[in-house]
Design a protein that fits this description.
By secondary structure, this protein is an alpha/beta fold. The protein folds into two domains: 309 residues, Up-down Bundle (ABC transporter transmembrane region fold), CATH 1.20.1560; 239 residues, 3-Layer(aba) Sandwich (Rossmann fold), CATH 3.40.50. Helix content is 60%, strand content 9%. A six-stranded mixed sheet has the order 6-9-10-3-11-12, sandwiched between helices. A hairpin with an 8-residue loop joins strand 1 and strand 2. Helix 3 packs across helix 7, helix 4 runs antiparallel to helix 5 and helix 17 runs parallel beside helix 18. The two termini are 25 Å apart. The structure holds adenosine-5'-triphosphate. The site of adenosine-5'-triphosphate has 10 residues, from helix 12.
Amino acid sequence: MSMFGGGFGGPGSGPGGAPMGGVGGAGPKGQSGSGIPFSGIPAELMAGVERLEANEPTHPVPRETFTQRPRGERPLSMFSMAFAHRSVFVWAVLLVVLETLLLQAGPYLVQVGIDHGMVPGDRKVLLLAASGFVVSVIAGWLATSARIRQTGRLAADATRNLRIRVFGHLQRLSMDYYTEEKAGVIMTRMSSDIEALQQLFQEGLAQFAVQGLTMLLVTVVLFSYDVELAAITLLLVVPLLLATSIWFRRASDVGYGRQRDTIAAMFSDLSESLQGARVVTAHNRQDRNVVNHRAFTGRYRDANDFTGHIAAIYGPGTSVIGMAGMAALLFIGGRMVLRNELSLGELTAFVLYLNAFFAPVQQLVQLYTNYQQGRAAVTKLRELLAVQPTVLEHPEPVDLPAVRGEIKFKGVFFGYQESRPVLKNVNLHIAPGETVACVGPTGAGKSTLAKLVTRLHDPDRGQILIDGVDLRLVSLSSLRRQIGVVPQEPFMFVGSLRDNLAFAKPEATDDEIWAAVDAVGLRELVERHELGLDAPLHERGQSVSSGQRQLLALARAFLAQPRIVVLDEATSNLDLRSELRVEQALDRLLEGRSALLIAHRLSTAMRADRIIVVDESGILETGSHTELLAAQGRYADMFATWSAHT
Ligand SMILES: Nc1ncnc2c1ncn2[C@@H]1O[C@H](COP(=O)(O)OP(=O)(O)OP(=O)(O)O)[C@@H](O)[C@H]1O
């Protein structure tokens, strides 16, 4: 079997391998029997797909666009989210008021029906009251339906904008944030936190307003019926209700904080296990992993159990208080009816209104849960949005013009943590068109040099200059556009080969892509796949070999035609044929360009114009391969050891 036997995606490519770009990009239309499931749309379904596409709603382009510097937007709050969609918000509020008024018309109409219809025996009034009731119910239903429509829109728009704002912010953050923060925690922010807010905006806030307004309205109505009766009944129940509500608020604050933290920890563990699935399987860690995950889910379960427990005390507790209030009303109000101080209709309306006073309390329990979740989510998201990128673009950046490719490190000091410097006073000059290879023991800081050139981090002291311009002064996009980076572990995205190759130059033509494919010697492999450049790649490029990934990364860098190449060589061992291919591809990529090669293989270092040998203390030796061999120093020792092993 040939080295590239499996090809891209291989025969087992599944739906995950569909190229980026939605239906339109899902391979040649109508192609079937290609051997790759779901790679195309069968001809017989095409008409249906076109019909569906014609009926697709068009979405306005969101206002959010990407900027390198944070835009200084106001801190996130529920109010600012709603305010951004104020016309929808105002409509929702008006409808909430209308809905509340209509819902409370019922008990009043019952009172009219009894006192002015039943008691005097006036059928006309009775009919009018009953018809009024029906009209108020229908109008209430229409108002509720319109309100739900408005709040649904508000929730969808506000969370769509929030998702884009958070995603844009994540794109802006520097590498140290991704080292410190777990991927699972970030996923939780984008999933359950934003969903909690969506739910709150869709139903929670409006319901909160409906129920709160209802309680207020009912209180006013109760007092208008009979001040004494209203005061006695409410004095009996409200203090108790208030005390239990304050207790519940405190307990649920703790509960929902715990829920947030434990769900984030659970997702972190899940995402790490998924990303490390190969290592987990290879090292037989599945058992231990399940035990670990059980602990995380256990903590999440306990947090849920706690919130369930307090809700179980609060919900029925408020019910009991309500029922006790009702009993008191029956006794006190009943005596007033007997003394002719209150009509039967008024007492009935009073009972119904008191019931309407307690129903919101029950609802508010659930709503408070939603509110707590939304509030916790806003706090977490606000914290995330407040993180400042450590690599900040200059307020007035200059666009780096087409560079010659001179790179200078001037007295550079850098450490990931302040207490542990990695680079100490590094001075290095790479002339335009020169290739410099950096060799040295693992952990010496070679990759760190590469990261500083592309401004993934900034030096703590000193300067890095390209063509004499300090990197801190130039716009990040003009800098990165001119540097081709080949990282140690090339990353491939889900999508087609074309999308992956043209990643740094999306506007590349097919001819340019094929030229890059030729430069790394992959034409035969691409042509062998029936979909050619449309061949799907899987997540993280898992469906191609590590050698192929390296070649693809070289082709990707080649395609962008950068002036400067920064290559962090992969440490993985390649077989001789793959190594040869990679080295040939490298020669093509480096032709006429300035390059900093972090070389793990001395065979790569030997190809450079100049080699620098580094260790933890800094640059030890510098010179060409022959000069360094002649100097009989560290490089000569490394070369002797390497030659003996190859
Ligand atoms: N993101 C990080 N946060 C904290 N420390 C880091 C980080 N990345 C690297 N380091 C530390 O900085 C030092 C230099 O790392 P670097 O990756 O530059 O080494 P290297 O010379 O490229 O090693 P290798 O040859 O193994 O790739 C190491 O001690 C490493 O532990």
